[in-house]
Design brief:
The structure holds three protein chains of three kinds. By secondary structure, chain A is mostly helical. Chain A has 15 helices and two strands. Chain A has a single domain, classed as Cytochrome c oxidase-like, subunit I domain (Cytochrome C Oxidase, Chain A), CATH 1.20.210. By secondary structure, chain B is mainly alpha-helical. Chain B has a domain of about 180 residues: Cytochrome c oxidase, subunit III, four-helix bundle (Four Helix Bundle (Hemerythrin (Met), subunit A), Up-down Bundle). Helices cover about 60% and strands about 0% of the residues of chain C. Chain C has two domains: about 70 residues; about 30 residues. The chains are: A mainly alpha, B mainly alpha, C mainly alpha. Chains B and C meet through helix 1, helix 3, helix 7 and helix 9 of B and helix 1, helix 2 and helix 3 of C.
Chain lengths: ~550, ~325, ~120
């Protein structure tokens, strides 16, 4: 992350509130170690951002490999083993290295203390440790790849994972370490939220993204340890043969799935909740309207976090779980749709009669609402016991999962990235390329995955290397969509990269938001704020007015723009 | 210590007051303890599942654990918990000589615990009472010769020198089904064969019991589930009280899983004790340098919480593993 | 934790007699839990008795050694919710495995064969 630094004391055409070339967190200290050992949450956030985007690139290439392989029946690029490893790699990288740390650890790390008006997170060293643990985990994933790859799927189901000859142990160790990285982030966020709020900011004066990050952190702390023990047991199963999960030694393979999904279902909410938080911000700011139903959105985040723990069995309807538990979990599963729907309706109500501006983050936010609604509603099909028996392990599940994880989380991540980019770097990206990226990704995504609902309902099983000729058309459309999506990502990357080189200098508040990160300069100084930030209702935009000379929003009482 | 004005040396820049820093650290520590509880919770879950469904193996196998040593270890750990709490008190009161003394006593307890654990573990190793794959019970330690160090083979290279599996090892190309009718001890060997040879191509070979794989991926299977009435022996068992007390009664199936659970639970707990030893040593060195006093004793307090949690887990492990009736 | 208005941290010191008294009770309970194994309360009752004793011991450690009784209530909330989630996990897993147990095939292997 190198920002051009010319002479100290300012750049030409520098709006007030922009600190490039002056004192800011990017130039507060120099050299590799000043980044590698930094305790500054903003720098850690940026390091996370670069790292997870690298992982995203790797996972994305694996996805393109999978889609290209499937463009025609039979072998296209490599053999079936290669295919199995590619989809496992795609899943494992995207889930554990990208989506889970994506919003909380990269964007969240950057904005959470700013949103609270705090100088840093509560435990800066733990934060740095979390980052380096992520790097360790990533190294183990690479080791696993170098020692022959893994073909278990990202779920590592026993007894296959305890008996396959591929290198399961390195990647499982990697995921184990990543779990601790995630726990540390969550722990830090909970304590920061409790202890470092400004005195006049009550729980219900926090921006909604804080509620989302807080709920996410609860799940990270309460669920991830169970993943840790699951993976330890799996390692022990392979290395020592403990027979807890391996039926050949007297174990119970379904028990592994209970262990795995006790974490991994809540983990789905680790992925989606912070995305919902970002959307709450974007929708309100770009409609220039107070968020509708603040308390409902806030409580629904917590409700999703709690409900997320009692529905894990819906992943196991067809894998030997008993009828009794199938029915219990099916019934409970529907409860999750209530808080999710509450959020959707409140966002729509916020949009209603708002003065909507079609900036890039807003386009992503609107994409999110459409795609997440489709993803959420198709989830109801899968939660229904009788229907799931037919749809389970087909492309319907693949499509549903990607509508929520990609159409939901990744889209919101991009929205948040474009939204906070001026704050992070002090530069504006080009709206034209930004909007183009949003449009391309939206079109490409739907082309890739909507057709997979049809494919799945016609019986195409997931994770298959080969298929019958009658599915070929659907697969081809899906593959073309994947390439359009990839093009969209390239445009987004181009847009952000070019902004660093020749982007306009960003004002302190380009969007007119009123949460505290917009009260400080772009980029912020090392300790985030000059003086005590004044917190008020984060969704009251009345104090800010557009100023053409700044090309951003300034406070009406003017004295607050530094 | 009278310079407790704006920013004492131990106060980090992003906290306003020592009180805020202290309560933040405490909150963080309790959250960490929550993660520990959940991590061990997974093992307690595995324990409950096996004990709930196969109580007979616990009835039978716990007799091989030494209750006396377990009880002594409980006492040792409880006492070290007291000395740790006392150490926190000493730090709070600024008793700079008592604090290192109490930490040393705590360490003594920790080492005592690990020593006794070592005695217990070695006796298990001598008798081959190990986790499932390495489980080969036999009388006092003549395991060097014909038994070929079963546990090491099981742990290191996948069952290379597995006794009893030799004559069956050649049959592995014929699929695991060939092992039908072999004696109990060959379960491991057959598993190795199945694991080693099938690798990635399992989907291609039709598994035993599957008649056909349809293009849609659905398998048409022969019923692999035993018909009602002929439930496999060993799965639905009633507990007979008179099994208790006979030291070498008939061994229930899956007894080896008990020892897996025993080693996992006590092993993970032992690793936590070792971790505790490391951090208490660190505290000891800091306290000898006079780092802690009434204003700042957070590390002592937090390590104390950790140490009590380790004690807490043992309080449950002891009756669950050693005191089964 | 006693907190003062000026942000200075004032520690809460646990009286020595409480610490030693708690240890004494813990040791007595340890003796008791070993002693009761020689009585037969019926197979499940023995487990219940052992667990009740263990819970009492654990509560004593948490409340006094870990001074949770004098600590901020939210820390208790955290600890109790951790236990509650463990309980949830165990209960649902136990409920399920108990149901499908009779249908399990002993010695089933990944390759699809059955080892007796």
């Amino acid at each position: 992350m190198s920002t051009p630094e010319t002479k100290r004391g300012g750049l030409p055409h520098q709006p007030p509130g922009n600190t490039l070339g002056k004192e800011n967190y990017l130039n507060a200290s120099r050299g590799f170690l000043s980044w590698a050992l930094t305790l500054d949450h903003k720098r850690i956030g940026l390091m996370y951002l670069v790292s997870i985007l690298t992982a995203f690139l790797g996972g994305g290439l694996a996805a393109l490999y999978v889609r290209t392989e499937l463009i025609a029946p039979g072998q296209t690029l490599g053999d079936a083993d290669m295919y199995n490893q590619a989809f496992t790699l795609h899943g494992a990288i995207m889930v554990f290295l990208f989506i889970i740390p994506g919003i909380p650890a990269a964007l969240g790390n950057f904005v959470l203390p700013l949103l609270l008006g705090a100088k840093d997170v509560a435990f800066p060293r733990l934060n740095l440790a979390s980052y380096w643990l992520w790097v360790c985990g990533a190294i183990f994933a690479v080791i696993s790849l170098a020692t022959g790859g893994v073909d278990t799927g990202w779920t590592f189901y026993t007894p296959y994972s305890s008996s396959t000859t591929t290198s399961v142990i390195p990647i499982v160790t990697g995921v184990f370490i990543l779990g601790f990285s995630s726990i540390f982030t969550g722990l830090n966020f909970i304590v920061t939220t409790h202890k470092l709020r400004p005195k006049n900011m009550g729980w219900f004066n926090m921006p909604l993204v804080m509620w989302a990050l807080y709920s996410t952190a609860i799940i990270q702390v309460l669920a991830t340890p169970v993943l840790a023990i699951t993976l330890l047991l799996l390692i022990a199963e392979r290395a020592m043969g403990i027979g807890i999960f391996d039926p050949a030694l007297g174990g119970d393979a379904v028990l592994f799935q209970h262990f795995f999904w006790f974490y991994s279902h809540p983990a789905v909410y680790i992925m989606i909740l912070p995305a919902m938080g970002i959307i709450s911000e974007l929708i309100a700011v770009f409609s220039r309207k107070h968020i509708f139903g603040y308390t409902f959105i806030a409580y629904s985040s917590v409700a999703i976090a709690i409900f997320g723990f009692i529905v894990w069995g819906h992943h196991m309807f067809t894998s030997g779980q008993s009828d009794l538990l199938n029915m219990i979990f099916a019934a409970l599963t529907f409860s999750v749709s209530i808080p999710s729907a509450i959020k959707i309706w409140n966002w729509l109500a916020t949009l209603y009669k708002g003065s909507i501006s079609w900036d890039t983050p807003m386009l992503y936010a609107l994409s999110f609402i459409i795609l997440f609604t489709i993803g959420g509603l198709t989830g109801l099909f899968l939660g229904m016991l009788a229907v799931d028996v037919f749809l389970h392990d087909t492309y319907f599940v693949v499509a549903h999962f990607h509508y929520v994880m990609f159409g939901g989380t990744v889209i919101a991540f991009l929205g948040g990235l474009f939204y906070w980019w001026p704050k992070m770097t002090g530069r504006m990206y080009s709206e034209t390329s930004g909007r183009l990226s949003a449009a391309l990704i939206f079109i490409g995504f739907n082309l890739t995955f909507f057709i997979q609902f049809i494919l799945g309902s016609q019986g195409m099983p997931r994770r298959y290397f080969d298929y019958l000729p009658r599915y070929e058309f659907y697969h081809q459309v899906s593959t073309i969509g994947a390439y359009i999506t990839a093009l969209g990502f390239m445009v987004a990357a181009y847009s952000l990269a070019m902004s660093l080189v020749r982007g306009k200098l960003a004002p302190a508040n380009p969007w007119g938001g009123n949460s505290l990160e917009w009260h400080t300069t772009s980029p912020p100084p090392l300790h985030n704020f000059e003086g005590e930030p004044r917190s008020d209702d984060p969704y009251d935009y009345g104090d800010w007015k557009w100023d053409d000379s700044v090309e951003g929003f300034v406070r009406k009482d003017a004295e607050a723009t530094a | 210590m009278s310079h407790d004005h704006d920013h004492p040396s131990y106060l980090q820049h992003h906290f306003d007051t020592p009180e805020q820093q202290f309560t933040s650290s405490k909150l963080g520590m309790w959250l960490f303890l929550a993660t520990e509880v959940l991590m061990f919770g997974g093992l307690f879950c595995a324990y409950s599942v096996y004990r709930g469904n196969h109580p007979e193996i616990f009835m039978y196998a716990h007799q091989f654990l030494d209750t006396k040593l377990g009880a002594i270890n409980t006492v040792v750990l409880l006492c070290s918990s007291l000395t740790m709490a006392w150490a926190v008190r000493a730090a709070q009161l600024g008793q700079k000589r008592l604090l290192p003394f109490m930490l040393i006593l705590t360490l003594a307890g920790a080492f005592g615990f690990m020593g006794i654990k070592y005695i217990e573990y070695s006796s298990k190793f001598d008798h081959g009472l190990l986790w499932a794959r390495a489980y080969e019970p036999h009388e006092e330690g003549h395991h060097g010769d014909d038994h070929g160090d079963g546990h090491e083979a099981g742990a290191a290279d996948h069952g290379a020198a597995h006794d009893g599996g030799d004559d069956h090892g050649d049959a592995d190309h014929n699929g695991a089904a060939d092992h039908n009718g072999a004696s109990d001890h060959n379960g491991d060997a057959a598993h190795e064969a199945a694991a080693g040879d099938h690798g990635g191509e399992q989907a291609e070979a039709l598994p035993d019991g599957v008649l056909e794989i349809l293009p849609s991926g659905l398998k048409v299977e022969k019923s692999t589930i035993a018909p009602p009435g002929s439930a496999p022996s060993g799965t639905v068992l009633t507990v007979s009280d008179d099994g208790h007390g006979e030291h070498h009664g008939p061994e229930p199936e899956k007894t080896k899983v008990f020892f897996s659970i025993y080693f996992l639970m006590t092993g993970l707990h032992g690793i936590h004790v070792l971790g505790g030893i490391v951090v208490i040593f660190w505290l000891l060195f800091k306290s000898l340098g006079g780092a802690f006093g009434p204003e700042y004793y957070t590390p002592v307090d937090l390590v104390g919480l950790y140490w009590h949690l380790v004690d807490l887990i043992w309080i449950f492990l002891f009756p669950l593993l050693y005191l089964i009736h | 934790m006693a907190s003062s208005t000026d942000g200075k941290h004032v520690p809460h010191v646990v009286p020595l007699w409480i610490l030693i008294g708690v240890l004494a009770i813990l040791l007595i309970l340890t003796w008791a839990t070993v002693a009761v194994t020689s009585f037969d309360f019926g197979s499940n009752m023995n487990l219940v008795v052992a667990m009740v004793i263990a819970v009492i011991k654990a509560a004593l450690v948490v409340m006094f050694f870990m001074h949770l009784v004098w600590d901020r209530p939210f820390n208790t909330v955290i600890f109790v919710s951790a236990l509650a989630f463990v309980g949830l996990f165990i209960i649902l897993a136990l409920l399920d495995t108990g149901q499908y147990q009779p249908t399990m095939i002993p010695g089933y292997t990944a390759a699809g064969g059955v080892v007796p």
